[in-house]
Amino acid sequence: MTGLNSSCGACKFLRRRCTNECIFAPYFSYEHATTHFSAVHKVFGASNVSKLLSCLPVLERTDAAITVAYEALARMHDPVYGCVSHIFSLQQQIACLMEEIEVIENQMANRAVDICNNPYLFTQSNIDQSVPILDSEIAAVDQISEIYLDSGIIERLLQELDQD
Amino acid sequence: MTGLNSSCGACKFLRRRCTNECIFAPYFSYEHATTHFSAVHKVFGASNVSKLLSCLPVLERTDAAITVAYEALARMHDPVYGCVSHIFSLQQQIACLMEEIEVIENQMANRAVDICNNPYLFTQSNIDQSVPILDSEIAAVDQISEIYLDSGIIERLLQELDQD
Predict the structure, then answer these.
(1) Is the ipTM of this structure higher than 0.85?
(2) Which residue of A lies nearest to B82 if distances are taken between CA atoms?
(3) Model pTM above 0.90
(4) CA atoms B74, A155, A39, B24: torsion sign
């Protein structure tokens, strides 16, 4: 129970009286908790989540409730792949980054060979030749840097899913 | 129903007769299907997964069943974070790769400046100076390349979880 005359999002959704012993209240009492619990109930079932939370140490229940809500909302959003689609997306990003590192590594190796074979080409008078190559390489790296990376993934995804 | 006198993994777990209309049979009839369905039932509930599959086009049900089994097994393995721990791990890998690209980018930029300012240092007689630097850079990239990447994540994770 979150306060006088107020029920947690889970009890509001389940249309039941919220008590001091409510297992959901500490973790489903924020603004969109009722909507999120609706997804949790539909995907996992309130009873299963209640059992899961009850089996965990109190200190770990918040993270469990957040990840369960995230998985449930992701499954509502994408019934076929759920949050696994996000795993695929991250794997794709890793593949792109590793490919980029390989490209840069090859460029570095080729440049080292060029320098060793022809050091006098890299004089100040030839600077204009080398700068464009470096610029294009840095541009490629900048492009990669634009890939989304955020440690607050759950909060962001919950927000995104709310907006859909 | 998977064959004469044989039940699918779901029906074996639920101790019921498997019929031709069984919604689970096409997707839970492999070697460890009974064990996997046990996790699916505990985490999601057989009824919820039955509803999910029934609402999807037949062609999408296999992927849905696989991802549901994956999420369920991951949650059994890690009751607090479930498969979200894998998302965190992938994010960490991305952070490492982006950091590595930044390091290489800076090394390239510094080397370009060195070459422009002092091209005569990079003669054949000085090759021994440049090779160790390149080797260390390549070694760092190789280290990054050892990070696990596999498009068959679900199958691998299911196997890993089976072994725990």
Answers:
(1) no
(2) A67
(3) no
(4) negative
